[in-house]
Amino acid sequence: MARNLLISSLENASFNIILQIIFRCVTFVINAWVIRNIGHEVIGIMNVRLLLLESTILFLSREPFHRACLGQKDICTWRQIINQTWLSVPTSCVLSVVFLYIWLNILPQSSPEHAHYYKFGCYSVALSCILELCSTNVALIAQLFCFVKLKVILDTLHIFVRTTLFVSIIIYDKSLALIAFSIAQIGSIGAIVFAYYVFFYWYIKNKPLYAKGALKSRYVSEGMLDKLYKNMDDFNFTSLRDFLPRYSGSVQSSFDKGLSTLTISFAKQGVVKQLLTEGEKYVMSASPVMSFTEQATYDVVNNLGSLAARFIFRPIEDSSYFYFTQMLNRDLPLHKQDQSKIQESCSVLSQVCKTVSSIGLIVLVFGQSYSYTLLALYGGAAFVANDLPVQLLRSHCLAIVLMAVNGITECYSFATMTSSQLNSYNYLMIFFSISFLFLSYILTYILGPVGFIVSNCINMFARILHSIHFINNKYKDTKYEPLKGLYVGKIFYITLIVSGIVCKVSENTYARDSMVQHIVIGSVCLFCVLIAWGYENKDLVIKTYRNIFKSEHEKPSKD
Known about the structure:
Elements: H1 5-37, H2 40-70, H3 78-86, H4 88-106, H5 112-133, H6 136-144, H7 148-172, H8 177-211, H9 222-229, H10 251-254, H11 257-286, H12 292-305, H13 307-327, H14 339-379, H15 388-416, H16 419-447, H17 450-474, H18 490-510, H19 515-536, H20 538-553
Helix pairs in contact: 1-7, 1-13, 1-20, 2-4, 2-5, 2-11, 2-12, 4-5, 5-8, 7-8, 11-16, 12-15, 13-14, 13-15, 14-15, 14-18, 14-19, 15-17, 16-17, 18-19, 19-20
């Protein structure tokens, strides 16, 4: 198979970052309009309670199967992989029933005026999750065969359909915001699932024609056809029926025992990881710590504070996890594997660590001086009249640095741990999750909503220490030191510290009287910081540029 996994992973990360920026910008504008014109409670119901239901069902039912199957294409048959991914659908059905009961009968309910819409929203979210998991199999195939642009197109379609449906309904009637959210949820997911199957129907139907040199299309260029079909000799699917579950005569031939064991390991891990990821929302939802209005305020600040994590760190982590699972064998020690792959993956880990930690430090430093400005632009003067939103955002900037480091180190650990190591780590994750929830509950009563962020920082710091210990242990008998990438350079540090001081002085002098001048000063300082980083890491910048755009400059060969 001649596909370049590193280039594919870089392209995937790049496109995902761009799409996440677009999606977050759209969501940013919509939420700003809703919070100014409809009210905080609706935002709290949609962005905290309903989206929490969606992430809970999807993460617990999709993540274990997807992560387990990613690195098994050379070990298991395609039939075993397809059958395994389809198990996520009945899993989601069972989880939907359980969590719908909890969301509708146990958790504190919304005000009577929103009660009916809230119930409809819960059922819609559960239905959309089950529907989305019907495309898990084709999404996995698309990722394994590096259909990067397909994912870009479908994610764009998802954003377009969801935004169009939601905006159209709330413009018609502002009181139908929750109904609009529910319809947009189902409509956008339905469009994605339909588009996935239509694409692969077209692809499979035309693959024999391409092999004969008889495929022509007015909509797709010859170069694009070459990219779609060239080096795809191992794509052995001949019908859409091949994407459906099928019993092969025995349990052993239909399901792989090792794959099932790995899936269960990821499922155990997924429960505690979900608690760690969404822990503050579970605490908010399950206890009367904050009202829906206060939850909305926290959610708005949390979303603004985690923009970097959502549209930069998460795509990088997803692509890195895919890359490491394809390059390294989790069941073999490093000295028994291809050393060229070990060297390349070690270099990639070091460079990614350097990149994400640099981004986190930039956010931390500039966030201290521009939290008030960002919140004032977003929610208006009334939103920042209380100092709490500014304190929350400034605190969240510290969490972003820890998110950056924890995301990539944990990503590498999960991609290279054996099944037994994953099982052992699950017990540690249980301890982390229980400690996190306990700290969240206690610190919230002591520090208010800031307590959520402080407890999250403590938890992530502990997880970082564990991941660093695992990685150092893995490379202790080798010449490689991938974690050196966490040190980003002296010139960058000095420039960042000076810029932070200048911006803080600017905030105290201009932020409230001349916001534009304060923003201009910050932009100049940010530019200087980026130049310093680029100068100190010019080899990484050049290498990344060449890897991303290499395939674009290669002309398709004519056989």
